[in-house]
C-alpha cells in the first residue's frame, strides 16, 4: 500500500511526453524478455564456467539469431501496414496491441471466467509483464 501511495505521488512528476517512450520500451522488453534471459544465462555460463563456454556461446548465438528474426518479423508485420520505417519500440508496441485480443483470450482460458473486465486486463498485464524490468519507472518514482 505504501508503494502504491508513493507511486501515486511520484507519478505526477512524470510528464506525458516521457511516458510514451518508456511504455514502448517496456512492451519491447516484454516481447523479448524470454530470449534476453536466455542470452544473459549464456553470458553467465561463459564467464563462470570456461569449460562450458563453447557450448554456451553456440546457444547464445542461436538465441541472438532468434531475437533478431523476431525483431525483423515484427518490423515487417507493422511496416507493411504503416508503409514507413519507424522505431523498433513503436513497431513492438503496435505488434503487441494488434495481438491483444488473442492474448486476453489466452489469459481468460488460463484464469477461468467470472472476472470483471478490469481484473482480466490486470491478470493479462501480470501474465505478460511479470519479470520484465521497468527500471526507468522505478528510478523516477523513487523506488
Broad shape: globular
Distance from N terminus to C terminus (CA atoms, Å) equals: 13 Å
Please outline the major beta sheet.
Answer: none
The topology string of helices and strands comes to HHHHHHH
Approximate helicity band: over 70%
DSSP strand content: under 5%
Structural class comes to: mainly alpha
Average pLDDT level: 72
Radius of gyration: 18 Å
The tally of helices reads 7
- Spans of at least 5 consecutive residues whose pLDDT stays below 50 are none
Number of strands: 0
Describe the structure concisely:
With 143 residues, the chain is an all-alpha fold. 81% of the residues lie in helices and 0% in strands. The longest helix has 33 residues, at 16-48.
Describe, in plain words, how this protein is organized in 3D:
This protein is mainly alpha-helical and 143 residues long. It has a domain at 31-86. It has seven helices and no strands.
Key traits:
7 helices, mainly alpha, globular
Topology summary:
Blueprint: H1 2-11, H2 16-48, H3 53-82, H4 88-98, H5 100-111, H6 117-129, H7 135-141
Helix pairs in contact: 2-3, 2-4, 3-4, 5-6
